[in-house]
Write a structure and sequence with these properties.
Elements lengths: L1 H26 L24 E6 L9 H16 L4 E6 L7 H10 L4 E5 H5 L17 H8 L2 H14 L1 E16 L14 E4 L3 H9 L3 E4 L2 H10 L4 E5 H6 L8 E3 L5 E9 H5 L3 H35 L3 E3 L5 H13 L1 H4 L1 H14 L1
Parallel strand pairs: 1-2, 1-3, 5-6, 5-7, 8-10
Antiparallel strand pairs: 3-9, 4-7, 4-8, 4-9
Length: 358
């Protein structure tokens, strides 16, 4: 009996040791890799888009090659896709809803939701926006794109919302402006002397061509082409895309790429509509607008390169090899004369920013 008990006791001890060793092996395996951070919970239908029907106006032709219409159509497409079709944007081009000033007033009054506009209509109400309108302030497209991404631009956007009552969603381009005429090829600044050119009804444009020794003639855009054809003016100044969309290359003999002024475009929305959107939906509007604007700038660059050939094939002489240093030099005092009206802080910061790029 004692022998049997001894055997049982030994067996119990052996089993206990085996279980103890097994527990230790399971508790101390090889060190595992650090666990991945838990994935954010799925946000099923996180953004609740409102059902919206928005009108978007602009003053230009509704053609595929028009820079205003390109921006408008791309934004309408992207916001429609992002919202699953809940936000519908209807585009009215060709000034169907009025001129730019009329449409801007509509946004301020809440009778129109959105528009694509040239910067001039906005800078009339917001002084800091005029930094974009000065002659030879920007020398190339790369400088403009960098400036759009700067903190200075954030300040200007905030000023626009405060002073104009509309919210800028994104900026892109109407393009650099150039001189076209029926008198002679412009190869030096001296060739401009006395030339009667239709210009925008703006102090900046008039001052610029006064400094360039031309004879600036303010005239409504709708009258300019008739004036060119009838010879009451020698020429005008326009961006390349507008020369194309208005077929001005069929009316003028010479085009010189003077790059004298850059014309910014902006996509803006009524503050009344904006304030009714949730922060999440506002972020989607901004994302879609910026995507459309980025594509529009690339589109304009490619279009311009192709259009020069189109103009030449139509019989227009295009002067591309021109020394612009004298043009730029005589326009510096014009830039400086707007320092106080624009605001010294924005003006000085812009000059320093651009000098840093050159």
């Amino acid at each position: 009996m004692k022998k049997m008990l001894s055997i049982l006791l030994v067996l119990v001890m052996i089993v206990g040791l085996m279980c103890g060793c097994g527990a230790k092996e399971e508790a101390a395996p090889a060190a595992p890799a650090a666990p991945a951070a838990p994935a954010a919970p799925a946000d099923d239908g996180a953004i609740e888009f409102p059902e919206l029907k928005l009108q978007l106006g602009h003053a230009n032709p509704t053609t595929e090659e028009d820079q205003f219409h390109f921006l408008a159509t791309r934004f309408a497409q992207y916001i429609g896709e992002a919202s699953g079709g809940k936000i519908e944007v209807t585009i009215y081009g060709d000034s169907q809803l009025g001129g730019e000033r009329d449409m801007l007033e509509g946004l301020q009054l809440g009778t129109l939701e959105m528009m694509v506009t040239g910067n001039g209509a906005v800078s009339t109400h917001n002084p800091s926006s005029a930094i974009l309108d000065l002659p030879y302030m920007f020398l190339n497209r790369e400088e403009v794109v960098a400036f759009y991404q700067s903190d200075i631009m954030d300040t200007i956007k905030a000023d626009v919302q405060k002073n104009v009552g509309v919210v800028p969603l994104a900026y892109c381009e109407c393009g650099f402006r150039h001189v076209l005429n029926n008198s002679k090829p412009i190869e030096t600044m001296a060739d401009l002397e006395g030339m009667k050119l239709r210009v925008v009804e703006s102090d900046v444009y008039i001052s610029t061509f006064d400094a360039l020794k031309a004879n600036p003639t303010p005239m409504a855009f709708s009258e300019a082409f008739t004036g060119l054809q009838q010879g009451t003016i020698d020429g005008m100044e326009l961006p390349i895309a507008t020369i194309n969309s208005k077929r001005a290359y069929e009316m003028a003999d010479y085009l010189t790429l003077t790059n004298h002024l850059y014309t910014a475009l902006e996509l803006v929305i009524s503050e009344d509509v904006w304030n009714k959107l949730s922060p999440e939906v506002q972020a989607v509007f901004l994302e879609c607008a910026q995507k459309a604007a980025d594509e529009q700038i690339e589109f304009c660059a490619e279009l311009e390169a192709n259009l020069i050939s189109t103009f030449e094939e139509a019989g227009m002489a295009v002067i591309t090899d021109i020394d612009l240093s004298e043009f730029q030099e005589v326009c510096v005092p014009i830039q400086e004369s707007y320092r106080d009206s624009i605001g010294a802080e924005v003006y000085d910061a812009t000059v320093a920013f651009l000098e840093g790029l050159r």
